[in-house]
Each structure stands twice: as C-alpha cells, then as structure tokens.
Amino acid sequence: MKVLKFGGTSVGSVKNMCNVKNIINDGTKKVVVLSAMSGTTNALVEIANYIFEKTPNKAIDAINTLHESYFKTIDALLSNTQLKDETKAYVTGIFNFLVTCTYEGYSKKLENNIVAQGELLSTYMFNAYLNQEGISSTLLPALEFMRINGVKEPDHFYIKKQLKNVMASAPETNIYITQGFICLDQKGDVSNLQRGGSDYTATIIGAAIKAQEVEIWTDIDGMHNNDPRYVENTNPISNLSFDEAAELAYFGAKILHPQTILPVREDGIPVRLKNTMAPEAHGTLISSQTSENGIKAIAAKDNITAIKIKSGRMLQAHGFLKKVFEIFEVYETSIDMITTSEVAVSLTIDDDRNLDKIITELEEFGTIEVDKGQTIVCLVGHSIVNHESTFKLFQILKDVKIRMISYGGSKNNISLLINSKGKVTSLNKLNNYLFELVTL
Ligand code: ADP
Ligand code: ASP
Ligand code: MG
Description:
The protein is an alpha/beta fold. The protein has two domains: 2-219, Carbamate kinase (3-Layer(aba) Sandwich); 297-437, VC0802-like (2-Layer Sandwich). It contains 15 helices and 16 strands.
C-alpha cells in the first residue's frame, strides 16, 4: 500500500482538488494525507494571536471572513444538495467552535485546538467531494491514532496499533483519507507536528503500515538544487539518498518538514516528491541508493543565533565542552553548528526562547558574544567533503563573508554561517559557481 500526501496548494482550490481526485482514483488501496487548504493555517494562527492580544473582535472578523470563503469553495466544489448541506453544517460547527474560543483566555492548548481545525475542514470537504464523484473513501480521524510522547516524538508503537484498528474498521475501502499535521500529546490534548508537519504525518504512517512508498505531492516538481524562492534557474534533482534529503530538509528546504525522512529511513521506504499540477514530471525519488558524488543542492535555514564563549583558561580544561552542552540540555535547546579554537568556542541555535537564561549561565565561563539574524547555508551531496569539485567552494569564500564553517561533521554536508542580510546574494553566487553557470 502507498501513502500519498497532498499539501496546502494541492487542496487549495476546486481545480487542484480535481487533480488530486484524478491522481488517487486508480483503483489501488492507499492512505491519503491532506494538509489544510493553503492560507488556512496562517489564518488560524492569526485568530489565535488576536485572542492572545485580547482583541476578540478582530478574531471574530477573521473567523467570519474565513467562514465565508469556505462557503464559496463548497458552493463551487459540491453540486449534490444533500452533500452540500451536510458539509456546510459540518463547517459551520467548526466556525461556531472557533467563535466560542474567542470567549476564552489564551492558552497554548487553545491555540493548538484552533490551528487543528484546518485539516479537519479540508479532509471533510474532500471526502464529501469524492463521495459526490462516486468514489468510495473512508475518513480516518488522525486524533484516534496519531500521538506524540513527552519529548514530542511520535509514539510509534501506539500509532501502529491504533492505525491498524481504525483501518480494520473499514477493510473494504480503497481510499483512506486522514488529516496531516494534527495529533494528540501524551496528556490526550490536541497538539501538532509543527508547521509543515503533514509531510511528517505521511512518513510516520508510511513506517507504521510498512508502505511500499510515500509520495509527497506539492506545487513544484521535486527537490530543487537551490531555494527557488530566492534563486532563478534552479533544477529538480531526480535522485537523493535518505541522508542527503534529511540534511536538506533539516537545513531549510521548505518542500520537506525537517523530520520527514526519519521514520522511513530505517525500513528503506522510498519517498517520492511529485507535482500535483504536473503529475507527468519525474519529481525526486529519495531512497537508500546513493548516486553521483559532488555538491548536489544548497539550502538555507534562517533565524539562527550564534553564541561565542571566550575563555582561554576554561577551554583548556578537560570537561569544559560537557559543561557548556549541559546548559543547553537543561533548556532543551539543540545546537546545530559548533567550531572551537584555543581561546573560544562558537555555536549556533535556532530556538532562542531561553537565550537570556542560557547566556546568564554561560557567563560563568567567560565573555559571551551573541549574534542574532544569522543563516546557515548548507551544501549537500554524497561524500562532498572528499570530492574534487569542492575546492571551488573555497574560492568563492573571497566573495561571501562567513562567520563560521562546518566541514567534515558528515561526509554529505558542509555548512556555512552567514549574516541573513547576505543570504540571497550568497545563495545566488554559490548557485552560479557551484553549478557551473559561470566559471571561476
Ligand atoms: P506544501 O503546501 O505542498 O506542503 P510547501 O510550501 O510546504 O508545500 O513546500 C513547497 C515549496 O517549497 C515550493 O513551492 C518552494 O517554494 C519551496 N522550496 C524551498 N526550497 C525548495 C527546494 N530546494 N526545492 C523545492 N522547493 C523548495
Ligand atoms: N497546515 C499545516 C501548515 O500549514 C501543516 C502542513 O501544511 O503541512 O503548517
Ligand atoms: Mg509543506
């Protein structure tokens, strides 16, 4: 069985929903994971923000606007009167729930409940649409099987067991439809897998059912060799290994949620990235096969903070780095890059929620310098640290101002830390030189 995930744009209009219907209606058994319609999760986050800011009237205006836009979509999507009425009643129930949220004080739990509504809306509407088109499908409520544990990781054992049970309740169905992104936490409250999390839902399900393949259908023809939002003339990459794809996803290639590859890597379940608007395009196949060497792709991760600890005396003492790492561990803050010298150690974090407390504790060791607004630019390819063309990277350094460099942490990754203001220029320069659009 395959798992097919369709992102926000893929379910964002009646035309695209029709494309999705054509792609999935091939008579084979599958699990279909849907995101919220594009723009909906952002609108729901905005509604939660209005509640946080204690401006409930703004929240109610936003709820009404969204409600109207959903009614327009339903009018265009469904011609069957009974299905249309049932769907409008369901959707109205959700919007009434959102209105009751504006009477409450803000809490993270309330926000999680609000942002979960997008996937509930899209899956209900799409299931009704398939019904109208005479295609039999079954809705699997994600909150009945998707759960994270105390450290916010998927509870694989529970998910496998519960998913098997809910799927067994409709054994005759060909198309199981479920919500991406949303889950329960270990207390049983509604939670989520973080923004872009529907990709992660798909691979978690893929691993749970030992799927033959996971397909991620989106609005572009696969993983490109650079970020198409900032660089022109990027190209899709036909094949990536799990390691290469995991590095790119973790270091900012938005097409994949950072954790997408983890659940399927061990079992070697291939992940295929496809374009809903151009299904004939090859896309990208991510598998355990490694193909040609050399730099294959560039990604960038923003909102990075660099921290430098200067302390000649302490650095030479054994156990120093352990003490530094313990501080980050206490504040549940993970470190992405690290470089050391005789007198200082520099490292980067992307979660600066506990930065002040971390700095206060680090000050025990020496002088601390903090640089916010940094970007990690990550170059990825099989064995690039040993590849003969990688020398070009070092010739480019005269043009790109680098704050830190990480070489050799893995064979497949070289990371550069730069000021975010130089990101677009650097991505373009690297693209031109490394992919040989201009010669040095
Ligand atoms: P979906 O809503 O389908 O999950 P996303 O917006 O999350 O889609 O991801 C697709 C987008 O990712 C593309 O439209 C593209 O702008 C962006 N993107 C960033 N880096 C890359 C890359 N290296 N290759 C392809 N797309 C990328
Ligand atoms: N709807 C969620 C988001 O916008 C999850 C997803 O699209 O993958 O982040
Ligand atoms: Mg996405």
